[in-house]
Amino acid sequence: MTGAAGGPWLAELLDEGYCIIPDALPRASIEALDADLEEAYAAAPFGSGEFYGYRTKRFGSLLRRSHWAGDLVLQPLILALAREILSTACERIQLNVAQAIAIHPGEIEQFPHCDHDMWAGEKGKHEYLLNVIWPLTPFTALNGATKIYPGTHRQTIEALDQLGAPIISECQPGDAICFLGSTVHGAGPNETQDVRRAVVIGYSLGWLKPYENHWLAYPPEVARGFPPELAELAGYSLHRPNLGNFEGQCPSILLRDGVPDFPQATDALRPDQRAAVREFAEARRARP
Questions:
Q1: pTM of this prediction?
Q2: What is the DSSP string of 41-94?
Q3: Alpha-carbon dihedral of residues 89, 90, 92, 94, nearest 10 degrees?
Q4: Is residue 47 part of a domain?
Q5: In a designed cystine with 136, which of 34, 68, 191, 280 is the match (CB 3.0 to 4.6 A)?
Q6: Rounded distance between C-alpha atoms, residue 186 and residue 226, angstroms
Q7: What percent of the chain has a predicted confidence (pLDDT) above 70?
Q8: CA nearest 97: which of 71, 61, 123?
Q9: pLDDT tens for residues 182-204?
């Protein structure tokens, strides 16, 4: 994807481990989302733990808190980049997280980390996820703008003193900060008197256990109101062969009316598997 679908952003992501796409969504959409989340930001407690931060608020389930969150998840360029980067290791991608974050005055710098470390699989052969930070308020060097360490997606970092100088992701609402799961990053300290707010949308390989438990966040009665593509990304889809099924069926069956008590278990195989299984079965049936 070096043409219109990805433009220069794919090359920058693969080369530097991150990119910042300006004006990826209209400012009005971001402001509407921020307004919808205002009460949740006020009600959410501060975190507990040095990693999450004692002066930082976090909450998920954004797709049921505001329909504007779906615009972030389904942004066409971002989705194209996620699919291009991740599809070499999976048949379909999934939503990994949709989380709101508010860094309050006095919060210290977050521990530099790679998000793909949440999974214990072997690293280096493929990417596990693409994360996108959508600022809801301006990101500055003083209010906690995320620090990103370029090139670390190609390195093995065993100690913090191996890190070079970070870039500070200063940008505006409507811009999209994209980085690979293998790229070292961390929120900066908030040395201002204002709250830094943002939403993180992450996409991961479709066969991984996602960071956020979407089936609890978006049960069928909620997901029925999603556009089909959004419901698929939120877990109402199969990853062949047969992974993530409900009673042998694609879990999207739960979004329809009249779900049977005993759905018919139906193969969901890759073409190569289907051909091999068919050949085997036909040979066995042909035996006298």
A1: 0.94
A2: HHHSPBP-STTT-TTEEEE--HHHH-THHHHHHT-HHHHHHHHHHHTTS-SSEE
A3: -80
A4: yes
A5: 34
A6: 32
A7: 98
A8: 61
A9: 999 999 999 999 999 999 999 99
Query: Does any domain span residue 238?
Result: no
Phi, psi torsion values for 274, nearest 5 degrees: -60, -40
Q: Are residues 269 and 214 in the same domain?
A: no
Question: Residue 136: inside a domain, yes or no?
Answer: yes
Q: Does 225 lie in the same domain as 172?
A: yes
- Residue 281 tokens read as 């079965």
Q: How far apart are CA 201 and CA 77, in angstroms?
A: 14
Same domain, 260 and 201: no
Structure token digits, residue 49: 């733990």
User: How much is the mean pLDDT over the chain?
Assistant: 95
Same domain, 262 and 123: no
pLDDT single digits (tens) 58-74: 999 999 999 999 999 99
Residue 240 in domain: no
168 shares its domain with 201: yes
The per-residue pLDDT for range 240-288, each reduced to its tens digit, is 999 999 999 999 999 999 899 999 999 999 999 999 999 999 999 998 7
Total Cβ atoms within 10 A of residue 240 = 17
The range of the structural domain enclosing residue 47 comes to: 7-233
